[in-house]
Amino acid sequence: MTGPAVPPAPGPREPLAVAGAGSIGVAFALVLARAGHPVQVWDPFPDALARAHDELSDRLDLLAVHGLVENPVAVRERVAFTHDLAEAVAGAALVQECAPERLDVKQEVIRRAAHSAPDRAVFASSSSAIRPSLLAAGLPDGLRERVLVGHPGNPPYLLPVIEVVPSPGTAAWAVERARTLYTGVGLRPVTVRHEPEGFVFNRLQGAVLREAYCLVRDGVATVDEIDEVVRSGLGRRWSLIGPFETVDLNTRGGLASHAETMGPAYARMGAERGQHDPWTPDLVSSAVRQRRGLLPHDRWQERVRWRDEQLMRLTPLWEDIRDTS
């Protein structure tokens, strides 16, 4: 990232734009408008805009049924739909690009939008895997520093994590502006460094999927049986705590003990799939330091009890969902 200057953080109700009226564009419009922002949704195809309008209303009605939006009518009224890109981005503090997952299409949308957007507008792509340095390549200097990836969980109105991925040329103020805005609308930004393909979300998801496919191929378990392991096991824990905290709490000695006990087995499993990424002592030490900074040893038992109580609290809900699915 470059540039030390930080402009004033965006106000809570600045106008925002969504470029692309597919399902993720509609979802972003909902998140932004629910937080009070006026939102312009652009798409070049009239049919897409009509479909998006209906989809937004349907999602808002469903959220209202579950008490997740207070006034769906007011939220709906904050969202406008247009086939005029200049109109959509005029005055927008952030342009959330939600075009199809093609580099040339996304670049063209950003380039066109920049002609009419404010000079300090940030351009955030919803790309799932395209590196921001590729998106920014060939764009004018003043525009390149305002381009980054803002990759959401899907749907973002239910999964609040969003990956903020700058390129080496993205200005520091643009990253902070995006993070501030996303936080203000209820999302939880995670800054991704070094822009790896797939970022964090899809690299983790991809690792699980690769092994799942291998287990099906090898006849170890069926598709539904593998899903059951996730539904009734991994997924239940991961809905509360991530993989590092999971293994930290699973072993009385914490992360260090888990790495010492299970590290060799995980290394053999990886090698079986042609992956050779051992947990070196330095790597384990770094992870342990980070975990102990988050959870000192003297609070370990307290956190284990918290985990169990949360699982107990959610178990009736999970079982009810399974019984009615």
Descriptors for this entry?
325 residues; alpha/beta; Rossmann fold; N-(1-d-carboxylethyl)-l-norvaline Dehydrogenase, domain 2; 2 domains; 8-stranded mixed beta sheet; 14 helices; globular
Low-confidence stretches: 3-11
* Main sheet makeup: 8 strands, mixed
Full CATH superfamily name of the largest domain: NAD(P)-binding Rossmann-like Domain
> How many strands in all?
8
Oligomer: single chain
CATH architecture label of the largest domain: 3-Layer(aba) Sandwich
Number of domains: 2
Give the terminus-to-terminus CA distance: 46 Å
Give the percentage of residues in beta strands: 5-15%
User: What topology, given as strand order, has the largest sheet?
Assistant: 3-2-1-4-5-6-7-8
Structural class: alpha/beta
Order of helices and strands: EHEHHEHEHEHHEEHEHHHHHH
